[in-house]
Amino acid sequence: MKVIVTDEISEKGLQPLLEDPRIRVDVRLGLSREELQDTIGEYQAIITRSGTQVDPELIDRAGELKIIARAGVGIDNVDVEYASKKGIIVVNAPLGNTNSAAEHTLAILLTLCRHVTTANSTLKKGEWQRAPFTGTELKNKTLGIVGLGKVGGRVALRAKAFEMEVLAYDPYIAEKRAEDLGVRLAPLEDIIRFSDVISVHTPLNEETRDMIRAEHFQGMKGGVLIVNCARGGIINEDAMLQALESGKAAGAAFDVFTEEPPRSEILRKLIEHPRMVVTPHLGANTFEAQKNVAIDVSREIVNYLDGKPLENAVNIPRFDPDLMEHMRPFMGLVEKIGDLISQIAPPNPRKVIFCYNGNLARYDCAPLTVAGMAALLNRHTEQEVNMVNARLVARNMGIVVEEVRTTESESFSNLITVILETPEGRRLIAGTLFEGIPKIVKMRDFLTDFTPEEHMLITTYEDRPGLIGKIGTILGEAGINIGFMNLGRRSKAGEAMVVLSLDSPADEETIEKIASSIGADFIQAVQMKA
After folding, report:
1. Active-site residue numbers?
2. Cα dist. 139→26, 113, 136, 183, 305 in Å?
3. Residue 4 C-alpha from the chain's centroid
């Protein structure tokens, strides 16, 4: 695998890639947009920070690209939706710079409260002034945190150490999370109304863009302090400037901006405002954080090569890390079922139902569903289908995907059943794991017991004496050896199903000869992935 690194990344953090003989790493810093577009087609993976725009135009030029790794938490510079359509995995490093961002939030807040930057500047000029730099203590002040995720939670803990009262607004956080941190959940209106300090810690998306606007500033306390170490655009910058100029806000501390580097007139005025503390997007800029995020994304690329589930993929369902090893064999099973049913089912599927029975149903099975869908669809589309884009491809094809889970199971501790509905009827395949080995235990209403092999032949016919012998004879005459045979039937002299494992594939002429000889109702050669 060839990996291109386009932004400044810690070399120590790249060690998992540099030590892997399967991987070649090219560090290409300072490439122009045109140069990157010309060279990206050679690579299967790209590692970036915020300095590289991975947009549809670049993705279209990256014909071999399998994984985009953002060495940091924010993915504003990556068009995740377009990457998903192309089946490209996007991973980030949401935890590597968590501590760095939290510490920087407190650093610029304290700098703002104690006038560190202006006092430092005047003293270096030879002036000794104290009264103009009278500060504000954090003790007994109310901090309003917008977004109680990894960074927001750490900021809350540190604020508690300063004896602040902490309110938090986050509609996606359970109450227990807030209780564990010693903070009180509150609606955004209360954050705006009661906070002495407001700090934002959310991603930037359509829901959070301009989350705090002019009308919100009107409802704030006079002399409020505003901190943004998250993403530029969460706080409307024009409204922020007006609040500073009117005196509504006593000060603000920003590490991020809607335009980086800032060039607009509003940003120039905001940055130059005397009650504004600013840094050039340094929240994750510590030696420790840079090493950590590089290690995190490097390990994800190695996991991808090893076929392991990815912990920090932002555009595919993922398991709880504690369950990954336990669930991985079931992913292999559902992929085999999906591949098998796609080859024997009638055309034009309109619905696929994934049923999970037994202990397996206690867990999140969404990753199993997309893995099964990817295997099912891969033989029927021009584009590569994988866990990233399986649901999207299915939706574009008009296929409804359903998932059913129940802990009840009559015969097996775990059972996966895939049901395909088509205009010609339903097809069903069920499988389980036996000592870690995938077994197909039901096809349609026939009970079976076989492990999918690379070359197989499946046929149904009216059961009569001597037909099994005819099948064996015809295959023998064609020089094709039978590895195993599994026979299922509904009743004596009723319809029978035979599944054969072959040492080599059967050609069309041999298949037609078998079908004619036994009067087959259905016959299909199956080629499974080795």
Report:
1. 231, 260, 281
2. 50, 12, 9, 15, 50
3. 21
Amino acid at 430: A
Q: 98-278: which CATH topology?
A: Rossmann fold (3.40.50)
Does the pTM of the predicted model rise above 0.90?
no
DSSP 264-304: SHHHHHHHH-TTEEE-SS-TT-SHHHHHHHHHHHHHHHHHH
For the domain with range 317-442, which CATH number is right: 3.10.180.10, 3.30.1330.90, 3.30.365.10, 3.40.50.980? 3.30.1330.90
> What's the angle, vertex CA 91, arms to CA 88 and CA 93, rounded to 5?
170
Residue 129, helix vs strand vs coil: coil
The CATH architecture one would assign to domain 2-96+289-306 is 3-Layer(aba) Sandwich (3.40)
HEC string of 352-399 equals EEEEEEEHHHHCCCHHHHHHHHHHHHHHHCCCCCCCCCHHHHHHHCCC
pLDDT tens per residue across span 35-87: 999 999 999 999 998 889 999 999 999 999 999 999 987 788 999 889 988 88
State how far the Cα of 506 lies from the Cα of 455, in Å rounded to an integer.
Answer: 8
